[in-house]
Predict the structure of ROK family protein.
Amino acid sequence: MSPATRPSARGDLVPSAILGLLGTRGPTSRADVARALDVSPALVTQLTKDLIARGLVTELEHAPSQGGRPARLLGLVRSAGGAIGAKVTADHVALVDVDLDGTVRSQSTQRFDPDAPDALDALGHILGTAVDDHSGPLLGIGVGIPGSVDSQASGIVDAPTLGWSDAHVGAVLRSTLGVPVLVENDVNTLAVAERLYGTGRDHGSYLVVTIGRGIGCGIVVDGAVYRGASGGAGEIGHIPITTDGPLCGCGSRGCLEAHIGEDALVRAALEQGVVGPRGTAAGLRQAAERGDAAALEIYREAGARLGRALAGVVHTIDPEVIVLLGEGIDAWRHWEPGFEPSFRGHLMPARRGIPFVIEPWAEDKWALGAASLVLASPFDAAGATGDQGRLVRERLHAGADDQHAEPVR
């Protein structure tokens, strides 16, 4: 399919990907933008006209020419708006304050108890402090949650790991903060961030798979995150792989996550004497680093199970590439001996060449992913962000009109 006719050309993330590309690569010609994002030059010309009119992009000097008409470079007006991203976990909230191009101005971590009766009020207080500390136009706040979210705009959450069921996170936070708030499954936020700033810039369809406390998956098809009928697409951690396996946090038995999530790996390490009664995932990894045979086998089996499950997902989605990351990625070299042969061996011959990319991990990636919801929402052609996206767009127009920002060179 040609770039001009790709479904991703109408995707809501392409204009934001242009902003992310200019932010991460610096001044770039329209032709180079089109090549990097695999879209037509005509589409880039059309979109950049709007971005320039909005005060988000500016034309800079001509690029050196090898003959013919020299190309004008595009530069990002970074200060036309910013966003706050928050990743909520079972014991803390990770925060970032970012510019329009995803540059992190500041990051912090705040203790948080999701089981507390006033948990949402406490979360509102944490985010309120971040809003007070933000300087310049604030487009909105993105919140990543480890669970199912009905829609980014309403933000009704079911998150078993947090003990939340039918939690009206979006409504409570919007009432408390008075700014647009977008709520999404945390792995989906990483998929959006990859589209704007990472591997997804070069691919229209891909998977983002996280390993750590749980096993998650964000699905991008033709340039847009696939959420499913109720926002729960990508819960590969709950693929059943044994009929009478260990109890999973979702209430079922034998889920992939119940076998290879962090708690499951530590439990296996305890049972086999790899770690002591107070053993942790870090202790298991250290044992593997020392060459402990039992520890290495725990990781090898986990990798094999992940490989088999992902082969099935690849056959279902047919992505171009898989991105693997997460809190547990530091131990990947111990997962890989089991993963690689299992993954390739369970794929049909035509799919065995699919690449996977291992990305280093830092917790602020979760929070940057959440902020990316806001940075992508002004260009939400499909309406996934609802009224909150409209409010972000209004703030973006106001921010661009009210200041004379300097371009990023």
Remarks:
- Confidence is low (pLDDT under 50) at residues 1-11, 403-409.
- The radius of gyration is 22 Å.
